[in-house]
């Protein structure tokens, strides 16, 4: 039987570079002979698409509905993650529980309530926070035409989400090894820092 795969979560603000870094990490793990699947939240499943319709600004839902939708999407996603890990595949997920704790609490929901919705989630082996200053995130979102498009793609919302991410990381939620990486560098430099931080897991 193959050993269980590792579960690595990437977190960061919109525009922080988690999607790019997830792709670079998966590529590098594959080149090192590790079987890896790259996943993301919201997923492309039916429930994930409902969540995305809110974050894209195409639909409005109450904060509670958004939190429940992300949590439900995550429950379905977690079934897939568990099966992959059991088969020995590594999973790199672009966002997971910490995103809900940062973004849904930024809409006024109590931390403990959002946490309770997510108690059935998997514990990551490592959580990588790509910490990119809000001004850089805004510049990147503007360049992509994604600034001011949804409720979270705004400077004040990103400021709030960053504070709440840090609060979540200071709590006792399961994160595995927390790795905070300065995201305000070239994509190659950020990728290198992530690769180095994950060295103990590849041994
Ligand atoms: P993003 O990760 O940029 O994905 P995409 O490029 O596919 O739009 O955006 C996802 C948005 O969803 C981002 O604003 C954060 C938000 N989000 C939550 O509010 N709660 C969650 O639990 C998750 C996973 C994401």
Secondary-structure topology with pairs:
Elements (H helix, E strand, L loop, with lengths): L6 E5 L6 H14 L4 E5 L5 H10 L7 H24 L3 E5 L2 H7 L7 H7 L8 E6 L2 H10 L11 H15 L7 E6 L4 H11 L1 H4 L1
Parallel strand pairs: 1-3, 1-4, 2-3, 4-5
Helix pairs in contact: 1-8, 2-3, 4-7
Bound molecules: thymidine-5'-diphosphate.
Could you explain the architecture of this structure?
Helix 1 packs across helix 8 and helix 4 (97-103) crosses helix 7 (155-169). The chain has 9 helices and 5 strands, in the order βαβααβααβααβαα. With 203 residues, it is α/β, with parallel strands linked by helices. The chain has a single domain (7-202), classed as P-loop containing nucleotide triphosphate hydrolases (Rossmann fold). The structure holds thymidine-5'-diphosphate (TYD).
What descriptors fit this protein?
alpha/beta, 9 helices, Rossmann fold, 13% strand, binds thymidine-5'-diphosphate, five-stranded parallel beta sheet, 203 residues
Quickly name the level 1 CATH class: Alpha Beta
Q: Write down the domain tally.
A: 1
Percent helix range: 40-55%
CATH topology, by name, is Rossmann fold
Alpha-carbon Rg, integer: 16 Å
How would you sum up the global shape?
A: globular
Largest sheet: 5 strands, parallel
H/I helix tally: 9
CATH architecture: 3-Layer(aba) Sandwich
How are the strands of the biggest sheet laid out side by side?
2-3-1-4-5
């Amino acid at each position: 039987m193959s050993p269980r795969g590792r579960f690595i979560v990437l977190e960061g603000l919109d525009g922080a570079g988690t999607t790019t870094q997830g792709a670079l990490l998966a590529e590098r793990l594959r080149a090192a002979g590790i079987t890896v699947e790259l996943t993301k939240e919201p997923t492309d499943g039916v429930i994930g698409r409902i969540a995305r319709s809110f974050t894209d600004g195409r639909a409005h839902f109450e904060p509670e509905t958004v939190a429940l939708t992300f949590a439900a999407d995550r429950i379905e996603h977690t079934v897939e993650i568990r099966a992959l890990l059991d088969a020995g595949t590594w999973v790199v997920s672009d966002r997971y529980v910490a995103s809900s704790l940062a973004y849904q609490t930024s809409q006024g929901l109590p931390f403990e309530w959002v946490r309770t919705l997510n108690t059935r989630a998997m514990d990551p082996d490592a959580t990588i926070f790509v910490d990119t200053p809000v001004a850089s995130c805004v510049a990147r979102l503007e360049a992509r035409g994604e600034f001011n498009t949804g409720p979270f793609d705004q400077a004040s919302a990103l400021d709030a989400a960053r504070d709440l991410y840090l609060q979540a990381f200071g709590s006792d939620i399961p994160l595995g090894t927390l790795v905070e990486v300065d995201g305000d560098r070239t994509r190659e430099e950020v990728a290198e820092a992530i690769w180095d931080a994950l060295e103990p897991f590849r041994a």
